[in-house]
Amino acid sequence: MPIVRHLIQTVALGKTRDHQPASLQVYGNIADIMGSLEVLDLMEQQFLAAAGNDLLARIASGEIDPHARRKRLFYEYL
To answer: Are 24 and 16 in contact (CB under 8 A)?
Structure first.
């Protein structure tokens, strides 16, 4: 807990209208860390999408044959 307390400078709670959840704003190094994690999550999602698209493109072009290993294993056991 002392480490977490050291990372937080200020916490601000805000009122909202119509029984909505209160807003919470955190300032300090922990806010920077959380912001960096959000960016990393977005980058990971973009990377996974690009890798999936690349794989599908390679399969569609015939560069990668998803059934080649199965065929090879089948013929090895004959």
So the answer is: no
- Dist. CA 62–CA 67, nearest whole Å: 11
Q: What is d(CA 65, CA 55) in angstroms, rounded to the nearest whole number?
A: 11
- Segment 40-59 mean pLDDT: 93
8-14 and 23-28 beta bridge pairing: antiparallel
CA dihedral sign of residues 24, 27, 28, 29: positive
On whether the CB atoms of residues 11 and 30 are closer than 8 A, the answer is no
Model confidence, pTM: 0.52
Cβ atoms of residues 9 and 27 within 8 Å:
yes
Tokens linked to 42: 């977005």
